[in-house]
Amino acid sequence: MSVVARAAALIVAFLGVVGVGVFVAVYYIGSATTQLPIVHYTASSGQVNVVLQEDAQNDSTTRPDWVTYYTQDPATKQWLHTTLFSVPANTKVNVTIYGYDGCTPLRNNFFSQVQGTLGGTVTVSQFDQHGKEYVTGKTTPLINSWADCNVGHSFAIPELGVFVPVASPNAQLSAEDLCSSSPCTTTGNPYAVETFSFMSPKATGTYRWQCFVPCGGGYLDGNSGPMGTLGWMMGEMDVVSA
Amino acid sequence: MAIEVQPERAEPARHRFEVVGANRPWWLRPGVLTGVIGAVAGYFLGHWLGNLLGGGYDRSSLADTNDVAIVLGYAFGVIGWLVGLGVFNDLFQMMLGRHLREESRLLSVREPGLGRYFRYTLDHKVVGIQYLFGMIVYFLTGGLFAMAIRSELLSPSYHLIGPQQYLMVVGEHGTMMMMMMSSVILGPFGQYFGPLLIGSKRVAFPRLEALGFWLTVPAYVILLSAVLMGGFPTGWTGYEPLATQATQGEDAYFFAFGLMGISMILAGFNMIVTIINYRAPGMRWNRLPMFVWSMFIVSFLQVLSVPVLVGACYMALVDRTFQTAFFANQLGGSSFLYEDLFWFFGHPEVYILALPGFGVISEIVSVFCRKPLFGYKVSVAGMLGVGTASFLVWQHHLFDSGINPDMRPLFMLTTEIISIPTGFIFLVAMGTFWKARIRFSIPMLFALAFYFNFLIGGISGVFLSDVPADTT
Amino acid sequence: MSASDTPAAPLANASPEPRHGLRLLAGWLTLSVAACLAIWFAWYPHLPPGVTSDSSTHQQFDIAVLAVIAAPVVIGVLLYFGYAIVVWRARPGDEGDGPAIYGNTKVQATWIIGTTMIVLGLFVFGTVELVGPAGAGAGEGPAPIWKLSGTQTTAWTPGGNDILQVQVIGQQWAFTYRYPQFGGMESTVLDLPANTPIEFHVTSLDVIHSFWAYLLGVKADANPQVDNVAYTTVKTLGGFTVHCSELCGIWHGAMTTSGTILIPGAFRTWATGVQAKEQSEGVLAALPPYALTYDPTVIPQLGQNIVKIDGITGGAGYYYGSGNPVTP
User: Fold this and answer.
1) Which chain A residues have a beta carbon less than 8 Å from that of C317?
2) Among C188, C203, C255, which would you mutate to test the A interface (most chain A Cβ atoms within 10 Å of its Cβ)?
3) In chain C, which among 86-125 make CB contacts under 8 A with chain A?
4) What single string gives the DSSP state of each residue in B154-210?
5) What is the rounded CA–CA span in Å between residue A91 and residue A241?
6) Is C205's CB within 8 Å of A208's CB?
7) So what's the pLDDT on residue C314?
8) Would you say B107 and B178 are in contact if contact means Cβ atoms under 8 Å apart?
C-alpha cells in the first residue's frame, strides 16, 4: 500500500478506537444513573410525605425475580421503579412503606431495633389477603425479625443514623398468597403498612440508603444483586435546599 | 547446554515443505477475521451448553442469572477464536500425517506486508510487533479508564458517574493495567530482541510464542465485556467471598485473568528454553546482555508463580458456577486461601513488571554514559536475588488480615532482605555514572526518571515492610 | 570512594581532577544531618497517626525512625545522580568514551555490607516495635501472642486494669459494635474509655471487611467465621472515625462510623445507659448470644416460626440451595 493509503488507514483505525471508547464511556458508564428517574418531594406545611413499597418480584424483563423498592410520584400517584428521591433540607420527612414481600430474617438482628426516627418508634399495621387488619396501628421500637418473622426488609440511612426494619406479612401469610404482580396493590394479597418520621439534615447533599436484610436471593450471603444495585434495594436521598 | 550449531539456512528447504502457489485472498486465509467468526460461533455454542447444564440450579431462577452459560460461552469462544485463527492447523496436519503447507515462520521474507501482522505467524519479530501494538491498545484502554477515574474525582460533590459505575471503572482500570501490562516488555521487546541478542534466528517454540500473544486478545475483549454486565465490584485483586457474591461481571474478570495467566506461562516457558538452548556458539552465560538476563529471570517468575493464579481463578470460577465452596468460610472453605493464592502470584507479578525494566535501563545507561555497565556480576546477582526472594515475601500483603502473628516477623525479615538485591540495581547505575560522558537523549531521560521513581518505590517498600508502619 | 581508573583525556587547562568522592561525601553529610534533624524535631510531632493511643504513638515513632534512616539513603542517591548529570555530562563536541570501569570490589562490598546492616537493623527494630506494644494495633488472628496485660473480667469497671472487650462486627455496609461486658449490647457508634486496655474482636457476617480506626492505630481484617484480635490503649480524649479498608462491595467507601473517647466514668454511664435502653425495648433478648464468630445457623434456634412455617434456615441468599443447613 502506498504511504498515503497506509496513513489514511491508520487514522481511520485510530479514530475508530477513540470512537468506541467515547461510546462506551458515554453510553454505558455515564448513563446508568441518569436512566433512573429521581422523584422530587416538595414540602407542604413544613413536612414531606415519602411513600415507598417493596415487592418480592418486579416488572422488569431482565431480572423479574429480583426484589425491589418502588417509589410513588407525589403528583401522579404512580409507582416508579426507582430508589432515588429528593427531599428539602431541615424538614420533617414522613415515610410510609408498604411491605408486600414476605418475611426474611435479618442477618444481624440488631437492626430489628428502630433507630434515628422521631420518637424512636415506627407505627405498623398488618393486613391479610382479605383486607382484614389483624394488627392495627401498633407503635413499637422493635420488630423482631427472628422471633415473629414480621420483617421483610429494612430502610436505613447510615449517615443520618436512621435504621428502620420494614414490616411484612407474618410468617403464616408469607408462606402463601403473596403479591405476584408488580408494582403491588393492596387488594388480594397480604401486606403491611409502616410509618415513621425523621428530620432531614440541614446540610444539603446526597445520602445513601440501603436495606440490611440479605434479600438478594441466589447470591452468596444474599447481599448482591438487587441489594447492591441502585434502583432496586438501595438508593440515594438527595437533600436539596428548601 | 545444547547450543544450536547448525543454524537453519535462510531459505526454506523446499523438499520438506510444499509451497502453495497462488496465495488465497486475505479474507480467506486464517487470521483475525476467521478468528472472530470462530469466537462468535464458539460463544453461542458455549452459552447454549451452559444454559443446558446450569439453567436448573436454584440460584439461577432466584437471581435470574446463569454464570455457567457465561463462563462456558467464554471458554468455547476462546477455543473458537484459536481454531479460526489457525492455531491448530499445523497440529492437525501433522496428526493426519500430511506435509505442512507452508513454512510460515519465514513467510515474512517472502511475503512482506501488513497482512502477516493479523495472522498466526511463527516469525518472532512479527510476534514482537504484534505484541507491541496489542500492548499499546491495552495500555491505552487502561489509561482511558484512569482518565475516567480522574474526571469523576475532579469534584467532591458533583458526580459524573454513579457509584456502581465508578467501582466498575476502578476495577477495569486496575485489572487492565496489572493483568495486561505484565507482558509489556517481555512481549514486544523480549520476543523481538531476545533471540537477536543471543544470536539466534528463532525462538525455541514459535507456536507457543504466537499462541501467547493471540491469547491476550480474547483476554482483553473478555475483560472489557464485564462493562456490558455491570462490571465487577472487587477491584483488581478479586477477593473472595465478595467475588463469589458478585454479579456476572466477575466471571469476565476471573476468566480474563486466567487466560492472560496461560499466555504468560507460555511466553515465559518459551523464553527460558530459547535462552538456554539457542544461544549462538560463544555466547556464554557471563556474556549475556543484561536485558536477556532480566528476560530469563522474569520467565522463571512467570512459569513458577502464574500457575498459582490460574489455579485460584479456576477455583473461583467453579465457586461461582457450580457452587463449590473453596472460599466460603461457613462451609469449610477459607477466604484466606484465596488471599494466599492470589498474593503468592501477586508479589512475583509486581517483579514481573519491574525486572524487565531493570534490564532495559541497564542497557540504556551503559550506552548513554559511553562506558560499560559497572558491576556486571553484581547486577546479575541483584536480579537473581530479587527473582528468588520475590517468592518469599507475599504475606506482607496480609499483615493485618488475621494470619498467625508469629508469621509476621518472618515476612518482615524477608521483605527487608529483598531490598538488598534491589539496591544492587542502584549500585550498578551509580557506578556506571561515575566519570561518564552522559548524553541526555530521550531514553536516558526516561532512565533517569526510572531511577527517581524506583527510589521512591523502593524506600517506601522499606517503610511498609515494618508491620506497625504498615498498619497506619 | 576513589576509583581505580585511568585518567580521562587531559582537559585543555590541565587542572587536576576534582575529588568527586570528597565533594559528594561532604554534601551528603551536611544534607543528611540537616534532614535528619528536620525530620526528628520538626516533622515527627506532626507525622500520622498521631498520639491518640498507645499503638498510634508507637506507629508514629516507627515512621519517624524509618524516615530518619531513609533520608540519608534518599539524599545520597539523589545527590549522586544530580551531581553526576551536572558534572559528568558530555560537553558539546566531546565524542569520547568514559573510562571502562567494570567493577570495584571495595565499593561493591561497602554497599552490600552497608545496606545489609541497615536492613537487618530495621528488621530487629520492627520486630521489637511489633512485640512490645502488644502487636502494635494490628490484627493478630484468633490466637494472639502479644497481648496487653490486664485483667479479663466479665463485668468491666473503670479505674482498675480491666480489659474492655469490644466486638467489631463488619457487615455490608456498616460496622456495629458489641460490648459483651455490658450484657452483649450492640451499638452503631464506638465509644471507648481512655487509659484502659482494649481488646478488639473483629469479625464479619458476610464478606471481608477491615476495621481501620486510623487515629487509634488499629487495623484488623474482618473475615467471616474468623475472630481477629487487636489491642490498644487509648490515651487522649476526643473523636475519631472508623473506616473500612478492605473492598467489600459498592458502599465500601461509605462504611464509616464515628466514635468518641470518654473518661472511663462517662464511658461506663453511656454503656450502661445503652444496655438499659436495649434491655427495656427487648433488643438484648432479640440478639444472638455473644459469640466470637457468627453464622446463620443460630437463627433457627431463636426463630422457630421461620423454620417451621417458611422453611427459612439461614440468613437467606440460598446460593448453596435451600436444602443446605448452613446457607451462608
Assistant:
1) 214, 216-223
2) C188
3) none
4) T-SS--SS-HHHHHHHHHHHHHIIIIIGGGTTIIIIIHHHHHHHHT-SS-S-HHHHH
5) 10
6) no
7) 54
8) no
The reply to whether B304 and B410 lie within a common domain is yes
Residue C277 pLDDT class (50, 70, 90 cuts): very high
Overall number of domains in chain B = 2
Same domain flag for A72 and A27: no
Domain that holds residue A15: 1-35
Q: Provide the domain limits for residue C318.
A: 295-328
Residues 184-223 of C with CB under 8 A from B: 202, 206-208, 210, 214, 217-221, 223
Which is nearest to B191 in space by CA: B284, B275, B276, B89?
B275
Q: What is the dihedral angle through the alpha carbons of A151, A153, A155, A158, rounded to the nearest 10 degrees?
A: 100
Q: Cα separation of C84 and C63, whole Å?
A: 31
Q: Distance (Å, rounded) from C-alpha B392 to C-alpha B416? A: 11
Chain B contact for C52 (CB, 8 A cutoff): no
Asked whether residue B318 falls in the same domain as residue B404, the answer is yes
d(CA C89, CA C225): 62
Task: Give pLDDT tens digits for B182-196.
Answer: 888 888 999 999 999
Shortest CA distance from A58: residue in chain B: B64
A chain contacts of residue C282, beta-carbon cutoff 8 Å: 142, 144
Which domain covers residue B88, as residue numbers? 29-102
Say if residue C275 is in the same domain as residue C217. yes
C301 shares contact with chain B (CB less than 8 Å): no
C-alpha to C-alpha distance for A234 and B5, rounded to whole angstroms: 69
Q: Are C207 and C224 in contact (CB under 8 A)?
A: yes
**Does residue B310 sit in the same domain as residue B340?**
yes
Answer whether B205's CB lies under 8 Å from B273's CB. Answer: yes
Closest CA to B378 of B414, B341, B420, B425: B425
The angle at the Cα of C72, spanning C71 to C74, to the nearest 5 degrees, equals 65
CA gap B107, C135 in Å, rounded: 64
Cβ–Cβ gap B468/C58 under 8 Å: yes
- Domain membership of residue B35 (yes or no) is yes
Closest-CA residue to A150 (of C305, C238, B419)? C305
Q: Which residues of chain A have pLDDT under 70?
A: 1, 25-26, 28-34
At residue C305, the pLDDT reads 64
Domain count, chain A: 2
Residues C101, C102, C105, C109: is their CA dihedral positive or negative? Answer: positive
